[in-house]
Amino acid sequence: AAAAAMGDIWDGLPADAFVEILRRLQPPISTRARLRLVCRRWRDAIDERAPVRRAPATVLAFFPGDPWRRSRAYIFNEHDLSGDRVRELDLGANAGGASLAGTCNGLICLRCERGGVAVLDTLRRKQLLVGPPLATGSSARYESTYSFAYHATTGQYKILHVPCYGAARRLEAVHVFTLGGEAFEWRQVPVPAGSSCCLHFGLLTIKGVTYWVTTDAERIVSFDHGDERVALVETTLLPALLWTGSYTCHLADVSGKLGIAVCRPRAWTESADTELWVLEGEGEEERVWVKRYMVMSHGKTPCQQIALPRVVHGEHILTTGRPLKPGWQRRPLCFYANQPRHETKLRCGVVRVSARSPGREVREFDGESLQTFAYFETWEHLPAGATTYEPTIKPVLTSSDDDHHGSSNVDDHI
């Protein structure tokens, strides 16, 4: 009776008053998503009167750690990737040798070197530590078997672990951990009989759905973080099968769509051609692979490679490379943003780079390899159980300090 009375009170609340409450409380994105599930009236009021507004995604550049160096993460403040202002995120003590499983609404999910997972809120220096799934065998050592996702409909954040056993890389079940769930534990979700995963293609999460490729490289599997259903994606022939010879393939984020990068190095040279294919078609439409871009890297110097998994940012193709330096000087890792040009003959956007024409250099980094992710800076909260971690980066002047001290072009740490 009390619940019914409370329901009547909320049902009688004018839409203007409800929207004003939302605006004053400014709930996190996940809370707002859960409020939409209460009833159709609330959903319509939120969608029409108080939609989520956030800045465009920026690029997060992540450098995996090693026994001698901690992992690092940088975000670019500018949407156009001018490289003038870059901030290093303070990942805390868990950054030593960690790998990045994914980012969602400003939260960062790290696969820790000693096992387990850490979800970080770097703005408040909060962390939620999660132990590794049980009975995962040797697959727990592969960072590519972890993924981090946010489902907009349910408002839930989930960590997915895809354990691959043995040479056949067969799958018996996947493991799921829900942030803020009823139980602080991993759950096993069964998969269809005969399921498998080819780790070389990696895992990719797009809009609350995680994808991976079967061991025969012929099919793509999806895991929907909303209903936790594992299913085959009906598509035309995978682009990887269109190539012959020596090539490498990896799932890619192409402007927020599921893509695949297929790279074929040219024998006895430092050249390579990389094609970027995008899966087009939604709903009942036939889903087909369309070649969207091509990166042609030529020359005698080590060729540029596309940045993964986020390959495209705005109108630019993201690549990395090490330009030649005089003498035995160590070559830095350069991050490039290249704008493709449509070529009618190749029927796609093309980027041509070489030693003489390397493209627009955004920034140099001291690191061995670089991964790129989409990053939305929001004030999302971690659930109960999160703890504060100590800073591990020496504080420097921020942009607000620059106005008082007269300095300029100083990188920020947060």
Automatic annotation (TrEMBL):
Superkingdom, natural source: Eukaryota
Source lineage: Eukaryota, Viridiplantae, Streptophyta, Embryophyta, Tracheophyta
Occurrences of domain F-box (ranges): 13-55
Classification via Gene3D superfamilies: 1.20.1280.50
InterPro entries, alphabetized: F-box-assoc_dom_typ3 (IPR013187), F-box-assoc_interact_dom (IPR017451), F-box-like_dom_sf (IPR036047), F-box_dom (IPR001810)
Region (Disordered): 394-414
Entry protein name: F-box domain-containing protein
SUPFAM superfamilies assigned: F-box domain (SSF81383)
Biased composition (Basic and acidic residues): 401-414
